[in-house]
Amino acid sequence: MEEVVMVGIDLGKHVFHIHCQDRSGKALLRKKMSRAQLFEFFATLPPCSVAMEAGAGSHCLSRQLRSLGHTPKLIAPHFVRPFVKSNKNDSIDAEAICEAASRPSMRFVTPKSEDQQILSALQRLRESLIAERVRIINQLHAFLLEAGVATSRGPQTVKRLPVLIETHHFSPGFTLIFEQLATRFESANAEIGLIEKELTRRLNNDEAGQRLLSIPGIGPITACALVCAIGDGKQFNCGRDFAASVGLIPRQHSTGGVTNLLGVSKRGNKSVRTLLVLCARFYIFRLSKEKGPLADWVRTLATRRHPNVVACALANKYARIAWAVVAGQGQFDANRSAKRE
Questions:
Q1: pLDDT at 237 over 70
Q2: Where in the sequence is the domain holding 296, given as residue range(s)?
Q3: Residue 161 CA: distances (Å) to CA of 103, 158, 164, 165, 287
Q4: Residue 2 scores a pLDDT above 70
């Protein structure tokens, strides 16, 4: 197997399909393996490039393959799809991954470190708990309405629940339901608080995260999300590339020399994009208190554009600034011009 220069892996939970090819692209081996057999195979294989789709398990597998001397290459699944020939199965997918990875213009995903994965997992766990908390509040409002009590929206209903129970004298069945929902709400609240403390602790130990906090409007939660998304920043050539990766640049449908720009593409990580837009809205809300070239740029843009457009433009600017802060390894300079270069 000394001739193997590229191996494509179609990932699975327990079963993996590999496709090995030489320098000319000729297939040398197609095989189905278990997870244990996969590591035994790569432990005896001379160093080569190993391509796979970026997804669940790919980042951990990339680190393990790198420790064995191989060069992992992660490809976004939608870049592999055009190379699938005719019918689709796991073996053909592995071949398509090899074909895609062999293209000189192919763009690859940088494998995440374990710390990045932990931060990402904590972020997603926090989001799921927040969604659960909202569901609990909505359910409480609905049940109160069924019991004949209309309340205003928001979590303040949970705080007022003891007073409502005492005032309206609900039946024992309804009272038990309301108390159970209140207990679940407090439990979700406590878990969210613990996760936010852990995110803050990890951010305090991260140099790039501390530099991101120097950007006005960027808080700890957004800084953690940016650390996960940017990494060391070397996989992006410029800030615009990172903004494009999170879907904050316009979609383009141009032909015949006529440029047609549409709305933001909304590609990539939805959570990072949402957080950047929220930070932009917060910055715009307290714009009267902000100073410097960035604030002047936002004020000028706000005089001729809709507030939603201004928020997306500022989120795009945040993405570019965040990449520059991480890749340039410097603090945000509030006196630098905010005009696009």
A1: yes
A2: 218-328
A3: 62, 5, 5, 6, 37
A4: no
pLDDT digits (tens, 9 = 90+) for 41-51: 999 998 999 99
Total domains in the fold of the chain: 3
Q: What is the CATH number of the domain that holds 59?
A: 3.30.420.40
Query: By C-alpha distance, which of 190, 143, 182 is closest to 159?
Result: 182
Residue 133 pLDDT > 90, yes or no? yes
Q: What is the pLDDT of residues 243-265, one digit of tens each?
A: 988 988 888 888 888 888 888 88
What digits encode the pLDDT tens for the residues 191-204? 999 999 999 999 88
Q: What is the C-alpha R_g of the chain?
A: 25
**106 belongs to a structural domain:** no
* Cα 328 from Cα 303, distance rounded (Å): 32
Same domain, 183 and 226: no
Asked if 324 and 222 sit in the same domain, the reply is yes
- Which residue in the block uniquely carries the two structure tokens 């659960």? 132
**pTM of the predicted structure, to 2 decimals:** 0.83
- Residue 71 pairs with which residues in a beta bridge? 49
Distance (Å, whole) CA 108 – CA 93: 17
Structure tokens at 124: 């997603």
Q: How many Å separate Cα 222 from the centre of its chain?
A: 11
Order of strands across the sheet with 27-34?
27-34, 15-21, 6-10, 49-53, 71-75
How far is the C-alpha of 336 from the C-alpha of 295, rounded, in Å? 11
Please say which residue of 179, 204, 229 terminates a domain: 204
Q: Beta partners for 329?
A: none
